[in-house]
Design brief:
Number of helices: 8
Strand order of the largest sheet: 4-5-11-8-7-6
Number of strands: 11
Shape: elongated
Distance between the termini: 27 Å
Largest sheet: 6 strands, mixed
Length: 275
């Protein structure tokens, strides 16, 4: 790391900013503001001393824990052997699905309506600590959304099913194929149906469907079990360094970083657009 102290004067604000950055890339690592009337002869040497202390503090600091959402999980597992990381586990992973559907869970209560259940898991040959998190507030919201989605699915596909039931098929295989394609669209319902056949006046076979939608209770119950839950994972296996109850707060600290970006993008900051 190379420390370059630069100053820039803003005559309108009467303020001097001292900025330290790294080498050729010019990545900013430290900034300090002073009154515009302060002499550079005093501030630059002081800035160098403070930068030296910062570099020493970074050198003596414990290993960093890199925190990110589920988008970084797969790469951390495959390539993060030399990193300490904490990430949300994607819900699509088979092992994750099994844990989210688990009913008999030993919970540990935290503040603000949260509960956690901790376990050791091995995924792609990487040993990890997994924390199953339950939020009562999130559960209440997600259950309401689930009920709306169940009703919405019934209304939408009942209309489509009505048209199928009023359609004449010339081949039973075609009708069964249409039923199979229709069933794949259903998430919370299933078909209760009968197929009847008859002959037209010209002795041509005709097949007709009689059907109705009924709730797929197993699918709905499984969906309910996953609501309000998510899984966090870390390869920091030492519970003395990172306690189980500290994993969720550490993950939620991302919001502070996001707030920083939000502030920079705000028009009140009065800078050029940042993407």
């Amino acid at each position: 790391m190379y420390g370059h102290a630069k100053n820039k004067r803003f005559d309108l604000k009467q303020m001097t900013l001292l900025l330290a950055n790294t080498g050729k890339n010019g990545f900013p690592v430290w900034i300090k503001s002073h009154s515009g009337n302060v002499s550079d002869q005093k501030t630059l040497e002081l800035a160098a001393q403070r930068m030296q202390k910062l570099c020493q503090a970074i050198k003596d600091a414990p290993p960093l824990l890199f925190v990110g959402d589920s988008a970084m999980y797969a790469h951390c597992v495959e390539n993060g052997a030399n990193l300490l990381w904490l990430s949300r586990v994607p819900d699509k992973i088979k092992l994750s699905k099994e844990l989210l559907l688990k009913n008999d869970v030993n919970w540990t209560k935290l503040a603000n309506g949260y509960k956690i259940s901790c376990s050791r898991q091995v995924y792609k040959n990487v040993e990890q600590r997994w924390v199953l998190v339950f939020s009562q507030e999130a559960y209440d919201k997600e259950i309401k959304t689930l009920e709306k989605n169940i009703d919405k699915e019934y209304e939408e596909f009942s209309k489509e099913l009505w048209h199928m039931c009023n359609q004449i098929f010339g081949c039973q295989k075609d009708l069964e194929g249409a039923l199979q394609q229709f069933s794949k669209k259903l998430k919370y319902h299933q078909l209760d149906y009968q197929i009847s056949d008859s002959l037209s006046r010209k002795k041509i076979a005709r097949f007709k469907l009689t059907a109705k939608l009924i709730k797929n209770q197993e699918a709905i119950n499984n969906a309910r079990l996953t609501k309000g839950k998510f899984i966090l994972a870390t390869n920091q296996l030492d519970a003395q360094v990172l306690k189980d109850e500290e994993i969720l707060p550490a993950y939620k600290e991302q919001s502070g970083t996001k707030s920083g970006f939000k502030f920079i993008k705000d028009n009140a900051f009065e800078v050029d657009s940042i993407f």
